[in-house]
Amino acid sequence: MSTVVYRDGIMAADSRAYGGSGSPSPGWKQKVHRLPDGSVVGVATAVIGMAERFVAWLAAGADPDGWGGDVKPDLRAIMVKPDGTRFLAEDAFFWAGPIETDFFAIGSGSAYATGALARGASAVEAVEVAILYDHHSGGTVSALSVR
């Protein structure tokens, strides 16, 4: 799956690509994306191609009728707007928020990352900790500044 973390204007994620149940990772991928309006979004999902579909849908304006088909989003996502407001989505087209928090983590490594964040780790450092302990997170850390 993934580890995606937000703290202090930085969103960071691991880069291990999910290969499906029982399959090895097929390689590496980007999990943190900048949208046309400047927002930064990070997506964690165990459905191959779901993150890319969700990001493309957001970039196209996020019209619920534009999603197409009967497949609902099966994911968790963090979005931070250019003004710093933060939102969370889970398995839906709707965002909760704005969320008032100093940091947040989603994905299979979120418990490890949250522990690191609680002890003062940066977003990048928290993802590095998750990579060490969560067997679904791996590769290098990518990060985008929201500011």
Defining key terms:
147 residues, alpha+beta, Glutamine Phosphoribosylpyrophosphate, subunit 1, domain 1, 4-stranded antiparallel β-sheet
Summed up, what is this model?
With 147 residues, the protein is α+β, with helices and mostly antiparallel strands.
Average pLDDT score? 93
Look at the structure and name the CATH superfamily.
Answer: Aminohydrolase, N-terminal nucleophile (Ntn) domain
Terminal residue distance:
27 Å
Count of individual domains: 1
Please identify the oligomeric state.
single chain
Overall CATH class: Alpha Beta
User: Could you name the ranges where pLDDT drops below 50 across 5 or more consecutive residues?
Assistant: none
Tell me the strand percentage band. Answer: 15-25%
Summarize the structure in words.
Helices cover 20% and strands 24% of the residues. The two termini are 27 Å apart. It has a four-stranded antiparallel beta sheet, covered by helices on one side. It is built from three helices and eight strands; from the N terminus they run E-E-E-E-H-E-E-E-H-H-E. The model has no long low-confidence stretch (mean pLDDT 93). It has a single domain (3-145), classed as Aminohydrolase, N-terminal nucleophile (Ntn) domain (Glutamine Phosphoribosylpyrophosphate, subunit 1, domain 1, 4-Layer Sandwich). With 147 residues, the chain is of the alpha+beta class. Helix 2 (110-118) packs across helix 3 (123-133). The radius of gyration is 14 Å and the shape is globular.
